[in-house]
């Protein structure tokens, strides 16, 4: 038996059921979070809070359960006839019962023994409150009159102050933080940062000194509290006292996720109508600090989506970012993105999001959060380990030996152009090409695909070869004395540098071995095409360019009738659509002859040899 003094001075008799809890199968029933409880309060003006009197004791036990809840006293043995405090499943059992009792009442939220009733008008509130009282009477649920607050404009519920303006921190919690003494150990500092993290959704501008406090928690850092840490500690206390009011989340209104990243942290803010619903920030790990800027920006989107999952999942929403390349890369095929960004995109594919560019000066809240972040204890650890494992797997499976990889790393570090490119990738590309250094402007068109891994530069999954190693790579590419096309195909699987294709052509065309053993090209005799028996039986087709425009040409072999259509783009899909338009007017031919161009290489077409379309 354990005696606990309640806040009102009365005593509460509790069990010490450590052994019993090990044997009893726990009944799991998920308790709602504060965010879930307040997600349906948009527009509420009047509030009431009700408290179940000695809540657990209102749940009767059957005889078998009562026998298990027996305890010794100096006056003999006693057993509980009602649900006792101390059983690990007692909160879930009671909360489940309360939810069943109040089920179906609009504007009514339940958290264990606390009941919240709200309404947009006094009449709506009173009607809902009357329904709650009727349910309580029907199920013989007794309420604690001294703890009930009825029809008020501001009320305390689950540790927050609720009003028509939204939600803010309970003053009692703020006062407790203010009165906390300076920590004397890592454990005490962890406790303080844990409380601050709990309140982080209210604080849009956490101090950058938080990173200094976090440094003290590292295993390899000796505990030494000095004036710098004390200043940061007091600043965090001050921010807790100045926390703003957050508006209630309204599921009927559009929602925006504003994100940003800095050198040391990530920031995210959930907005509705331009007003904040919740804030979040996260300090980057040492590994994440080495990410390229575009990877940090993508990581901030992943962090924001997962932190605010309960608000965003199943809804269409806009993500605001000040990194313009992300807006483009999210519209491209997944294979076009660098491997690390591919993994992050896969993480957010379950969300219906649209990334929109917004200048950094307009994302001041998310920007402040990213630059003044706290360590995040909920999202990121498992994801980050998984992400790094896959990145390292990619590097370890490069089609080069370990010795060659080290040589590439050394040559890359000595290549001034690639070092400039690496620095630009890590810091982030400028918005305009004119601001890019001249030496790396040739990389501008595929800047979104370039990333850094293990001191090497990659374009998607292709290694960017430093200038010093390119001649050697050309020799290896042509070591089997393959033709130009085969050599290009071989190189494009794993390697990249600007002008690689033309250099391969030049290298192969000057190869003495190939020149010596190359046979003269014999001209193939022209094969006459069969003469059709009727119009539109056999057609010839090709593409031609005139005045910067591309056209589709179709000629009837029988009558020499010509059809010409302008193309918006030179793709197979566009050519097929235009051919369908022509066929819808004149009918479908028996044979369609082309020169086997790339636009005609589809499974539904039959092409002739390159020299076979002699009519066009």
Automatic annotation (TrEMBL):
Gene Ontology process terms (BP): DNA integration
PANTHER family on file: CCHC-TYPE DOMAIN-CONTAINING PROTEIN (PTHR37984:SF8), PROTEIN CBG26694 (PTHR37984)
Pfam name, any one: Integrase_H2C2
Residue ranges annotated for the Reverse transcriptase domain, each copy included: 1-162
InterPro entries (UniProt xref): DNA/RNA_pol_sf, Integrase_cat-core, Integrase_H2C2, Retrovirus_Pol_polyprotein, Rev_trsase/Diguanyl_cyclase, RNaseH-like_sf, RNaseH_sf, RT_dom
Integrase catalytic domain residues: 531-616
Protein name: Transposon Ty3-I Gag-Pol polyprotein
Listed GO MF terms: nucleic acid binding
